Structures
1.
Amino acid sequence: SAARPVKIAAKGAVVAGGLLALVGYHTDEGFKRAVQFNWHVLPIALHYKAVQLATRGRDERSVSLAFAQLHEKYAPTSLEIVLRQKGFYVKSAQFLSQYPDIIPPDYVEAFKILRDDAPAMPYGQVKSIVEHDLGLPIDKVFSRFDPKPIGAASIGQAHGARLLDGTEVVVKVQYPGAERQFWIDIDLSIRCCEALAPYYVDVLRQLQKSFATEFDYRREAKLQREARKNLQSFRGIQVPEPFDDEHPKCQRLFGKGLATKNVFVMERLYGRPVDKWAHEQLQQVAAQEGTSVDELTERLKAMSPSELARHIPSRAALRSYEVLLQARDQLRNSVAFGYNWTLGWIGAPIDYVHTPRPVNIYQVAETLFRVQAKCIFEDGFFNSDPHAGNVLLLNDGQLGLIDWGQVGRLSETQRVCFAKAVLAVADKDEPLIAELAWDMGVETSCHNDWVAMKLGSFWLGSFGEEVTAELGGATVFEDNLARIDRLVSTAQDYVTAVRCLMMTRGVVALVGFPAANSSVRMRSAAEACLQRAGVELKTTPGRKLPRPDLEAIMGPVGR
């Protein structure tokens, strides 16, 4: 029959297509990673979408329970996918893990291991890369090179080492193929967002742009040197010095710098990342209370900001405790000194003690906001990836700012515009917040001023209840806001600055201030920025926009 040739041709086309797909899978890395991504991720996304449709119109408790079961089921699976895919997926999971108020706690718990303990490559491979890039045997540069990495991240890992002259350093080594994988993965993510969530495309494109320097450690060394120069007189902050072409010791010892495309040697700072310190605090409190860290974490998450505040020691209490420790050490050490210089001559001497001082969480939060305000409003040059693993609580009480591979820049005109927006949010001038959001490039489907105001308050202000509660809390804030008026485009020129503020708030949340408001904390710096530019801004504190009837538009707001 006439249909027979058509059927044969169709079958042939299917077979040919299958063979081409098979060949593509095994020969084209981009195609292979796209297949792997779709194969593992799409079923999860479809399950979430099905539950969302099935629970539409139900009460808040039923919706929360249904999604809680999905989170519990898929968080460990998602970690496995991230570890398998590596690269961009690890970076994204690291970023998300800092926001327990925005993403479900099951995912925060699953992804937090990636902040400083991503999969590491073996020492033999590290040694080969270091020697190839530096053009010298490893023992001609280092007298010691620790085989076990200090930490492993999305595109590389860091090792402790000692130069031939005894200087302690950190050596960053990039994973082979990391750059190619990243471009493949982010291109795939952008295509997915164009189809499913177009309002995230701008964010991904900005991330794509900011990552351009992170795959060449020579560029990162230059950026880190620029940051160090900008902040060298900033009290309480340390940026590690790069051992690059500009470092005099490199020229004297090796005749060249120790920063190449894949290897980057820098000064070593001693301390703990904020996220590790925060986890240690949880472990200590859990042990004191005879409970587990997970149980304690769940209890803390159930508390309101005001309840959490009651569990944080006051400034006076911290200072009193520090004075007590200092007095106790002085008393014991004075006794030890007297003994060591008398009876200690004939017996065993007594060791002196130096009890570690408690971290001044108030000073940490204030210093972080002040330094980010300086970087944004004065220098127009800031770290766009200041997550909790990149902020160190140094042993001498200072803060160490590391990993300057991703930076953002703002022109003077952009700094002025950003300062205006920060002040409008700080003063809760809702019409002005919306006006400035439109001016900065925010676009929504219906140009709803109230939605633009809410976005600005969330991005530049706080994750706290005063901003997010009426939309179901921070976790579902943006989703519920989209039900009123969908975000089409973010403020493209300011995405990295917004990211800097939001990530800084994430770090500050870990030291005890989950409802910190970055606009209030940076008010004085924003005002100074406008003064330097000769620009005046009149705000009307507390001025309101008409609030839409949320219940009529959305029905019950689910968390």
2.
Amino acid sequence: KIRIAALRALTAVLWCGIWKHNFEILQVLMAWQDPNKVPIKAFYESVTNVNYMSTLTFDRHPAVRRFWFETLAYWLLRIPDKVDHEPYIAPYLLSGLCDENEDIALEAFWLIERCGELYEQEKEEDLRKTKQYGFDYGWTYNGRAFTPFPLQATWAGGKNVQHIRRTAAHGPDFMGETDLGEHKQRDNLAADPARMPDLGPEVQLPARDYAWPELRNLTVHRSLPRPRLGSRCWVRTHTRRYIKATFNDVVDFRDCTALNAGRLLCMSIAYTEEGVTEWLQPMTAALCKFYSGRAWAAGDQQVTRTYDTVCKLLGAYLDPASYWEQLKETLSPDCMMEMDQRVASMRILALCIEGSVSALQSVEPPDPNLRMGRLEPVVPELIAAMHGSDLLLSPSSESRAVLWNLLFSFLEPLRQFLSSSQVSQLLFVTLALSAKSPGDAPAELARYKAEATAEQAPQFAEEELLDTDNLERALKLLDTDDSAEAAVRKPPPAFSLDSLDDDDFGSGGGSASSSAPSGAELAADPRVAHLALFTRAFP
């Protein structure tokens, strides 16, 4: 009760120093100090500054945190000189979206929506052309794609959060081809205002006598749409003020600091969307340091899930050519980075591609003419880079696992659009990843290979292969052949890949009973089970 009463008293104080001293009050609350000014007292004794805004953001009592975020929104909606305070308030209000209490996080989302609505009214002239000409970012594929909001820094907001689509941006109807009743207004939750979609169960806010009267009509739903245009523009305006400082905390060795920095970064990307391209290079460097540093090695699942969500959002919103340009060097044989940095870069690349594929698959109605969408120019270069990478020669366990993730990030959803030459290259990559390196092969296997004849060669399917599950999965995906040639193609004769004299079978050159493998042995080796794929790939 004391902290809540203090917030109400502080709000009353802010009305007394409008346009005069309020900005100084906010600086004291967040322990901000001009780096070029040092108080005389600091030369003689220790000075302690407390960030009260951070303390209230992570207060132990949910009622205090709820009222704190409501107070921040109240300041942004009611205080006349709020333009001076927005840069200080915005990061803390965004932190409310990651509150451990899901109801408080949902309320913070709808509070920001209320602030975005006010921003649209105040900046109507600045946003007029954007609305009238129907401008939207490229990741939306003309308003048809959708990326779920990452509430609590979790991809798609977790299990209890639902998502709905807003009306897409539409340009003017210069030719009068559309009836007036069919005209659509941007960012509506339904094309027909009379038929509102089901927003899910309403979150009942607790009745409190100290709540702000202006926010008592706030409606909080569990179904989250894409943030409205005003909210995105408002957050994007203030993101550039703190995002570079956030990169420094991303690589902090303390898990709590890295977690909070990742959450703020995740929420900033969710609102900034494709505008985050401006900071792509330093952001990629910070993420690479995270995945190759202590924070990743600690194995904290919450931290890992947060930064995986950050990378997926980058892939969903950014042009794939942008992040591919930053990360493609890691697959080059001439790469000068350390192995842990290369593995981290490949992990980021795999997650970004997953995000791009997710945005492509969310297009409604489905459009087969899109094919690979914005990934069209990137996937061929990626396949060629993987095929020629030196990481396939002797992969470590970490690089092998990351390369498998990178392969499956695009293989399953985009397999039908790959050419035969690209399938051949991916088949080579698959075999290289599933084969043991020469140094891992047993000495007995090497001696048999050197001395055994074709008729005496034993079966070494189990000893030669690694990651048989991934190999089988990749071969099944690559073996999909929908072309017209598949209907008339004759099945090749069955033979063992481990035999060096396959032509002898059936021609009298060898004993079928002593050399030919049984049907069970053929089925055990995925390379033999998908022999038709090898025949097509390596004619």
